[in-house]
Amino acid sequence: xxxxxxxxxxxxxxxxxxxxxxxxxxxxxxxxxxxxxxxxxxxxxxxxxxxxxxxxxxxxxxxxxxxxxxxxxxxxxxxxxxxxxxxxxxxxxxxxxxxxxxxxxxxxxxxxxxxxxxxxxxxxxxxxxxxxxxxxxxxxxxxxxxxxxxxxxxxxxxxxxxxxxxxxxxxxxxxxxxxxxxxxxxxxxxxxxxxxxxxxxxxxxxxxxxxxxxxxxxxxxxxxxxxxxxxxxxxxxxxxxxxxxxxxxxxxxxxxxxxxxxxxxxxxxxxxxxxxxxxxxxxxxxxxxxxxxxxxxxxxxxxxxxxxxxxxxxxxxxxxxxxxx
Length: 325
Description:
Shape: globular
Helix content: 55-70%
Number of helices: 12
Structural class: mainly alpha
Radius of gyration: 21 Å
Number of strands: 0
Strand content: under 5%
Order of helices and strands: HHHHHHHHHHHH
């Protein structure tokens, strides 16, 4: 849970500081993977069911968003947020879908990710970790806010067309081997596919019995004796009855906080980008130094990815060994 918390917050912060849209989405995935690690680390059926449900919604949403970034790259030959300022007006449909994706990423009440998030919050409270839902909300605010910010800047022309020098923390937004040819059309299929994926990310959680079925499967998976007899001995499964949970009022409050926070953060970034200057230097200077340090650790080079993946796998393996001993 500790490693998942660090990953969720770290990835969310890195996500919000990106101007390269593919990296922005990649860091949002890292943040959500941290959330999923927290859910698995709670070692409960609700936690496992929450992760499985959230993965469904997140996977469909993120797949759609990556495809929509592909639409921008195909049409304009760049994935730089500032170079794309206002140019997305030519593909309004993509802008609508991008905004829906940002709201879904923030776990808007009613979408599939929301139901997974509510299960994780219940699991956290059952494990006496009342602070953990705040981590999920922070991840939702920063990752959803980043996508909503891009929606406003690229597809509506809101905000600045170039980041001011003294607050620029993101690196170059163009890869050497990236396509740079622009076109004057977008094939309809490039918009139809992400639209279908986004529709799936919304309606799956509303299918009667789906989330309850995932909860039952998670509970059965944790019934080790019955599951082992079923898999290894081909014995008829005799699982204990499972009572599925219901969405509580606090789940809607957490989700509303995440979505409203994402909208507010995107709005402040677009319409009040220099608001931070009113904060005391004693707060701003350490924050700027910390962001620069984080960027230094994540240059985007493939060697960085391999190094971090290996380090994280070793840490998780070591933690598992400690638990076993």
